[in-house]
Write a structure and sequence with these properties.
about 260 residues; Fructose-1,6-Bisphosphatase, Chain A, domain 1; 2 domains; about 30% strand
């Protein structure tokens, strides 16, 4: 099945997972602790179960790697040429603080690259989707799918989007050297979507993220004409290339001039 044929089904799955999350979001939910001490809610698990089950129906021959089932040995998953990479609830801290800035992320990875991505925001019923080389789109319950594209900057200040929940002194130092800019805080993979639709020019990440946090948003950014690259060398983020699933520091941007202007050293 072609990526464009898969996309409507993936969007539907993400929305269904979002509804399950909202069922929990509207209650006095309890949290427990994951191994990394981040909060875990019943919403994560409900969304995970829906996504895994529905993707198995949509594409029975494609394995699924989800944050909630990430213990698959590298020796096994390293043989995968194609797989779904899922974060059932990205931005659990935003969920717990009830600011609405959390997402459902579903990406299709082929040969270490995201080739399809869906990012759904349950609270606003907004969905960003993208297929690199084909296009990127935004849709809501009230508005049909419409194309989005990154912004080509013309003059300062640059519009920078950063994490709402993760402060970073190194980032503050880099931004001070960047020159005139406006900093907008946002949670989860919404930051990548803001770059994709031209509401932000760049998103620098100097702290840790996992591959399932970024893959879907990277697909949307690249489909919208932007890039998500490693700060070390400017190469695009790659997936399933090593045993741990942590991303290096990276920069997501629309205009290539943002990469050239980013402070180094």
């Amino acid at each position: 099945m072609h990526h464009s044929e898969l996309l409507p089904g993936v969007i539907d799955i993400a929305r269904r997972a979002g509804l399950a999350i909202l069922d929990v979001y509207g209650t006095d939910f309890e949290t427990s602790a994951k191994a990394d001490a981040s909060p875990l809610t019943e919403a994560d698990l409900r969304a995970h179960r829906i996504i895994v089950a529905e993707l198995a129906k949509l594409t029975p021959d494609i394995p699924v790697l989800s944050e909630e089932s990430a213990d698959i040995p590298f020796a096994e998953r390293s043989r995968w040429q194609r797989y779904w990479l899922v974060d059932p609830l990205d931005g659990t801290k935003e969920f717990v603080s009830r600011n609405g800035e959390f997402t459902v992320n579903i990406a299709l990875i082929e040969e270490h690259r995201p080739v399809l991505g869906v990012v759904h925001i349950p609270v606003t019923d907004t969905t960003y989707s993208g297929i690199p080389g084909v296009g990127a789109w935004r849709e809501t319950s009230a508005r049909a799918r419409s194309p989005i594209a990154v912004r080509l900057t013309r003059r300062p200040p640059l519009r920078v989007v950063g994490s709402r929940s993760h402060g970073n002194p190194a980032l503050e130092q880099a931004l001070a050297a960047l020159g005139p800019h406006e900093l907008r805080p946002a949670g989860s993979s919404i930051k990548l979507c803001l770059v994709a639709e031209g509401a932000a020019d760049l998103y620098p990440r100097l702290g840790p993220t996992s591959e399932w946090d970024i893959a879907a948003g990277q697909a949307v950014v690249e489909a919208a004409g932007g890039q998500v690259v490693r700060l070390a060398d400017g190469q695009a983020l790659a997936y399933n290339t090593k045993a741990d699933m942590l991303n290096p520091e990276f920069l997501a941007y629309g205009d290539p001039d943002c990469w050239r202007r980013w402070p180094r050293g």
